[in-house]
Automatic annotation (TrEMBL):
Coiled coil: none
InterPro entries per record: Rossmann-like_a/b/a_fold (IPR014729), Universal_stress_UspA (IPR006015), UspA (IPR006016)
Entry's family note: Belongs to the universal stress protein A family.
Pfam families: Usp
Name of the protein this chain belongs to: Universal stress protein
The UspA domain, residue ranges: 18-159
């Protein structure tokens, strides 16, 4: 008599991690997220094929200020602040040999991050748990909280 065998459940293969949105504001938490991405890439079977979208989002200036400042001047202001915030992340990614695409936006950071992740078909958003913004969140930054709430893809927060 042959022993009955229970059916073996096979785990569905996890979808490949191909597109990652790396949100950076230049803070220490953001740099920790870059370092986590570098380590994560080394753990992936297809790590060299990882497509990284490096994003910085600048908050718009208040309506009162924007009425008195030329739009070109505001664009220059946001571009300069964004460039400054991205320099440390770029340096780490360049040193690790990771190719990336820069994205600079102006708007509400949480919603802009979630929207870009959707538009670029990202599999994961990676960011620091707390950035350089206001201290409105006790343990979790307000941008991180907003991104988690609005995102349709997983969000990895790095402390």
């Amino acid at each position: 008599m042959e022993a009955a065998h229970a059916p073996v459940a096979r785990a569905a293969s996890a979808p490949a991690l191909q597109n990652v949105l790396l949100a950076s504001d230049g803070s220490e938490g953001a740099l920790q997220a870059v370092q986590r991405l570098i380590a994560l890439r080394g753990d992936l079977r297809e790590g060299a094929a990882l497509n990284v979208h490096l994003l910085n989002v600048q908050r718009p200036v208040s309506g009162d200020v924007s009425r008195f400042v030329a739009s070109g001047t505001l664009e220059d202001y946001h571009r300069e602040r964004s460039e400054k915030a991205l320099v440390p992340a770029r340096a780490l990614l360049d040193a690790a040999g990771i190719k990336y695409t820069d994205h600079r936006r102006v708007g509400d950071p949480g919603s802009v991050i979630a929207e870009l992740a959707r538009a670029e078909a990202c599999d994961l958003i990676l960011m620091g748990a707390r950035g350089i913004g206001t201290n409105t969140g006790a343990l979790l930054g307000s941008v991180a909280r907003s991104t988690v709430e609005l995102s349709a893809v997983p969000v990895m927060l790095v402390k």
